[in-house]
Model the fold of this input.
Amino acid sequence: VEQALSSGPLKGRRVLVTSGPTHEPIDPVRYIANRSSGAQGTAVARALAALGAHVVFVTGPADVPPPDGVEVVAVQTAQEMEEAVEASLPVDAAVFAAAVADWRVSSASDRKLKKTKDGLPELEFAENPDILHGVSQMKSGRPALVVGFAAETNDVIDNATAKRLRKGCDWIVANDVSPETGIMGGSENAVILIDKNGADAWPRMGKDEVARELAARIAAEITT
Ligand code: CTP
Ligand code: CA
Done:
């Protein structure tokens, strides 16, 4: 790690990676969340650090431990993730691999909800900030390269291409997470990299290999 940090094409560059799920509390013992192991985001952070970048790794409660050699900022909720992302700026590149919960429970209780004979609890929701959208649309101090992820279950290229335009990010790393692919929670990934020129489908490979390939392309993009 010492070796990797002291040299490499991304030496002197600062890169942000978000990773993992967010947990949105319902009460002190319950939460809502997306399914995310954090494996792909963690691998991307590791690969960027191995190329010499200073990586700020903003992570929700993931299944896998953060990599060595990165600056770890651990958060629980989407709002905390947004604050940590804003505090990490400016960066040369930002990779948003987190599976952010789209909604939080606006009626969260500071006491444990109890079963009663009066019926079921009623939860009210509020929409969480779209962190990728906010950074992509920055008027000044925007990272030179903003990369989003899109986990889709159908019409992957169409959905991810529309998502790239809606968010305003430069690249989208799209993947098919329908159950029959076995990608969710597995060690492999099959991604399609979408940029302004179109879609590039990569062969199925290990999440670590996907991360190394993506890190190499990020390095090429921001250093040339
Ligand atoms: N993202 C984010 N903040 C959010 C939601 C998503 O930063 N509140 C980022 C994710 O980290 C990912 C990208 O946006 O890089 C796409 O996330 P996704 O959930 O696919 O996009 P949404 O706009 O929420 O669309 P959908 O309705 O398909 O969930
Ligand atoms: Ca979403």
In short: The chain has a mean pLDDT of 95. The two ends are 25 Å apart (CA to CA).
